[in-house]
Design goal:
This protein is an alpha/beta fold. It has helices at residues 18-28, 69-72, 78-90, 106-114, 134-148, 166-171, 176-185, 200-212, 234-237, 239-244, 259-263, 268-277, 290-302, 308-322, 329-332, 338-341, and strands spanning 52-54, 61-63, 65-67, 95-96, 124-129, 153-158, 189-195, 219-223, 248-252, 282-285. Helix 8 (200-212) links the parallel strand 7 and strand 8.
Amino acid sequence: MNTLDLSEPEVRGAAVTRREFVRLAAATGLAVGAGSLTYAGAAEKNASGIPVRTLGRTGEKVSALGLGGYHIGKQANEQESLHIIRRAIDGGITFMDNCWDYNDGASEIRMGKALRDGYRDQVFLMTKIDGRTKESAAKQIDESLQRLQTDRVDLMQFHEVIRFEDPDRIFAEGGGMEAMLEAKQAGKLRYIGFTGHKDPFIHLRMLEIAGAHGFRFDTVQMPLNVMDAHFRSFEREVLPRLVKDEIGVLGMKSLGDPFIAESGIVMPIEAMHYAMNLPTSTVITGIDSIKILEQALAAGRSFEPLSKETVADMLARTAKAAVTGKYEKFKTDNRYDGTFRNPHWLG
């Protein structure tokens, strides 16, 4: 993979100018395609002013911003987390993210409580499992449904596909995909996807192994942010493939969890707009307070397609800082890998 040569005079010291960035891109291939793919669908918004987009070839309509499940389970006060979920839905965020392993199940339990009283029918509900074997996957699917207090989720995804052997295990005889397909046949889930945050080539391998088995995923979840464009880039390596195959794109880590936002190089709403400007079906963002929720709602309601000049400026500002992955620690550090610390979850 090409990287910027930090010995170049233009990238030492002061921030890279747009002209210098374009010249370096041409020389290194780094930004070829970065920022060039944009959402091309209709500018549809819901009654709350949040953009609504189509989820790949499924035809489902989802809010262009999704509420991340992990942070919901970190709230000290459960009632506050339920309030955040319902206020997000009332505010137009209707894509709900979650996972079997988030906070030892607390995230799913809380979301299940919040989706009572008619809220379940207002959302597109997604959760994830870690099981790589049929037995472990089937067990986790049923546990997730029980916690979420529903007999069916809209989307179930294989979580943390971060090892090159994960695709082989999932699609092996007696692997997790058998449990997923049986659960779909039984009406426990409607669509199937996978997630990962480590390396774009693992995503590409998952897609290739799926194709070899005659299977096409409905969705793929991955980091998409203004720093990713420069380092182990999912935007450059995976996004074009998903668009071509009409697979729903679920963006995550738009704020770097939370290092991009803390860098001061780009502002939070600006960073969220960058991810929304890509051909994403939804951009999932962690929300752990009403203040952060209001920031996300403001980002959604104020979003307009970014000009090429705006995108180029953002890429130029982040080029030097992003090149080592410093602000995307989920790609370089195992601290974000729940299945690394708990390999028994894989089965």
